[in-house]
Amino acid sequence: MRFVAAALGAVVLAGCAPAPTPTETPSAPPRPTVGVPSQPSSAPASAASTTPSPEPALPPQEPPPAPVSPAPSTAGSLGETDVARAEGWTPTARPGSSEEGYLGNGTWVHAVSAEHSAYAAIALGCADLGAYPQPTAALEGTLAGPEGRPGVGVTLEFAGADEARGYFGEWVRQAKACEGTATELLSLDADTWVGRRNLETLWSETVGVRGERVVLLIVDQADADLSGAIPAP
């Protein structure tokens, strides 16, 4: 997740039903980058706090190590049922590459660098980035939608709920700073942001904090309904 800046939001706890069987595709989805303006929105009074962090955040000082073997299909305590998926979108195994930071393992989920995924997801580029807690693990999933359009879900696991909420608060602050240029807000409460991202085309996106996890999901469809993609806490 290198989610949005380089790829790229509780959790789909689908223990009561088997996960869809992944299908193979020949190549990975394009890694989106912030594009042209979208329409501004305003947050409700009940929205999560967006108070700026006093200390600036620095990008990772080193690139992630080049993958030399297939990525694990779990990360920390995270498994495939902890990665959000959109209704009508199919979990899809992809081969990965060195440029994408992972090599495929035959499933639709793969462990990725927690540090780099967290930074790529939160560094939206519209405001100075405040310091944020670092996750301890990150698991990414790849989806295929209508006409083979790509989608990406990433779940970040933190040391505790306070750290996860701190990251979510800074993410919301960054998204708010981008309203009218790169983000469009549809709804926001204390736990979940739902909106759109302008990545040259409009992508639908949702990000939520659930306990010690932050769940992110973005799909290449402007009108996808992601309001229930992350179950309520």
UniProtKB/TrEMBL annotation:
Locate the compositionally biased regions of type Low complexity. Answer: 36-52
Keyword Ubl conjugation among record annotations: no
**Record keywords:** Signal
Which intervals carry biased composition (Pro residues)? 19-32, 53-70
UniProt key word Aminoacyl-tRNA synthetase? no
Q: Where is this region: Disordered?
A: 16-80
**Residues annotated as signal peptide:** 1-19
Which named protein is this? PknH-like extracellular domain-containing protein
